[in-house]
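I wish you would study the pair of lines that follows with an eye to the fold:

===
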Amino acid sequence: MVAQRLRDGPQADVTHPSQVSTAVSAIAAAVPRLVIESLGRHDPAQPAWIEPVEGTLLLADISGFTPLSERLATAGNEGAEWLTSIINDYFERMLDIARLHGGDNLKFGGDALLILFRGQAHADRALTAALAMQRANRALATIKLEQHRIRLRMSIGLHSGRGWSAVTGIPGVRMQHLLLGRAAAEAARAQGLASAGEVVISEATRGQFDVALDLEPRQDAHLVVRASLPRAKKVTPPDFGAEESPVAGAAFPAALAEWGLCLGQEGDHRKVSVVFISLRGANELLETGAPSAVLAALQEYVVIIARLAEELGGYLVSNDVDAYGLKFIVVFGAPVAREDSAASALRLALALTHDSGRLHPGLVQRIGVNSGYVFCGDVGAPYRREYTVIGDAVNLSARLMANASPGGILISEQLADEAGPAFVTRELPPLTVKGKARPVPVRLVEGEQVSTGTALRRSNLVGRERELTLLRALCDRVEAGAGAA
């Protein structure tokens, strides 16, 4: 089996040397170096652990991929090939810069990069890399598509400090690396204060420098106008050897291996339903409670998401950080197409809401769901890649999540129409969101209805269509007078 061979590494039954090389490269590239190191210190069969991590985080947000994806979506397979090439060339150029300064890319947030710099002079190397990335971005020519011109722009935030690195999930199914603590939130906040072409550093990062920097105040952070830094010593990038593949394989997404993905294939445009989940409160809990207790709560939550995604035919793409905590993204319709992706997405969201009573009292979730055509594919550099989704439908799902009330599920009207009348929704006033010229019609999800006989009743059963069908058939027999044990 492909999945087993990829997870077991080159010692598995792979007959051709090129297959071994491809498998090792795919496994190593799909897992951050930080996680590979932690896997070497822990038993992968014990799925959850948490460790302190210190350094400087660089969060770079790139704008332009979404309109580029929308333009190329009409060009079919050829458009997807162009987009894959453009995205990968761009990410490889930026990751090369970060890597030469000791940066470890932790996450691809669709069109964002979260990079960690550790060790001696981590802030110097992070700022040097950030400024070099902005210079490289400015040097890129405007992308011309027929009569359209699209420019990729980047905003960067830096924060230095101590955070927590946690690994959670289900070995052999889906593992998740979580970056926790104020450090991650402050990096996201600094990036949010930066405009296109700018680098903003937090007060904590400013305190890491002995040399004077030319800065401008940006709320309680600082815009870097100019920095005369000593030439940073370049770092020799680590080699990923074959002996590391069984270790990294524990964190490699089993579903991608099963489908033969994350091996450098071209991406494509697909109709998907996207579930964005915001989980707030973990960073605050870490400040007042034991890290082990917070880890236990997060482990339970991640296991629930992973199991629901597996049962309902979705894929837990990744998680990311923001100024408030964690974000999880689950997609239905990719990497494998589904006919009922909208309904399945809502069932996952409802199941999470019904399970919210099991959440730690300090944790709060918000959910946004939307559907549409997006670019799906394996993106990044040869040494660091991830399967991700990019497009306007993804962005709108994130906006809906951000506007949902605590514990609520906010969906687009389009998603509601595709999911069908089985779901109970309530129309809300149209929502004005970033990136949309007109207010977006939205609905609040309240539950799902299931037909039993001639009546419609509210049901909390999710993903049990086979069992419900059997139950209805038995009820019909009893009503017809054919009782049985």
Q: What stands out?
A: Residues 1-20, 452-460 have pLDDT under 50 and may be disordered.
